[in-house]
Amino acid sequence: MTKFDEATQAIRVDESTYDVCLDPGYAIGGPLNGGYLMAVVLRAVVDSSPFDHPVSTTSQFHRSPAAGPARVVVEQLKAGRTVAFSRATLVQDGVTQIESLVTTATLGDAEPAYADKAGYVMPPPEECLKLPDPKPESNMTLNARMEMRFDPPTVGWLNGEPTGRPESRAYFRMAEPQDPDPYVLALAVDALPPVVFSAGARGWAPTVDLTWHLRALPAPGWLTLIGGGRLISDGWFDEDVEVWDSAGRLVAQSRQLARVGRG
């Protein structure tokens, strides 16, 4: 079991309840990363499902839970021969933190009937950039849990030279050697810096709603994250992320709605 597996494990209490312990190692300046929190919830959902994989997840982030004990309550809505539907609630101190609707199924390894190619070709990892290590007092502990190499134009905001477009692109893998799986993908779809940074905004940009789809089981190796947005308006922005595996297959897609960074 890797550190990430331990940090996301869900222990069954009864037919619908799971104990979890939210790990402070996945914080972004204080709040815990939304992708990490989704991975925790999905561990419980898949354990309670007759199927193996979370193929579609929609999460609404009511609050920002603190590191420490919490519970996931799973309600089975419907199950058929090939798909099941669940509602999962992350609860801490008796208060709902995150509500998720999750569809589970079991994916195979059949060749796709049609497969698009990535719309953007990344430079090789050795030509991409690693962000500076954050200062300990920043409480950006998430950075130590994953390894990312960024397409240089999309991190120009570090030097006060944003591109003016909402975009972010990077290679991604866990810092501890681990082949990517659906739970790693849940983290990956929310691992990029907010795309509004490249449009000139800064600060913590809290996610309000995030939907992501698992399209295939990923091959070992680097994942490629391609992020972009369509509209920044009235304090809101959208962010779309595609995740491609080392074999060049689209393995996950996400869209989130978030608030423009504060402070």
UniProtKB/TrEMBL annotation:
<dbReference type="Pfam" id="PF20789">
    <property type="entry name" value="4HBT_3C"/>
</dbReference>
<feature type="domain" description="Acyl-CoA thioesterase-like N-terminal HotDog">
    <location>
        <begin position="25"/>
        <end position="107"/>
    </location>
</feature>
<dbReference type="Pfam" id="PF13622">
    <property type="entry name" value="4HBT_3"/>
</dbReference>
<dbReference type="InterPro" id="IPR049450">
    <property type="entry name" value="ACOT8-like_C"/>
</dbReference>
<dbReference type="InterPro" id="IPR042171">
    <property type="entry name" value="Acyl-CoA_hotdog"/>
</dbReference>
<protein>
    <recommendedName>
        <fullName>Thioesterase family protein</fullName>
    </recommendedName>
</protein>
<dbReference type="InterPro" id="IPR029069">
    <property type="entry name" value="HotDog_dom_sf"/>
</dbReference>
<dbReference type="InterPro" id="IPR052389">
    <property type="entry name" value="Sec_Metab_Biosynth-Assoc"/>
</dbReference>
<dbReference type="InterPro" id="IPR049449">
    <property type="entry name" value="TesB_ACOT8-like_N"/>
</dbReference>
<feature type="domain" description="Acyl-CoA thioesterase-like C-terminal">
    <location>
        <begin position="125"/>
        <end position="260"/>
    </location>
</feature>
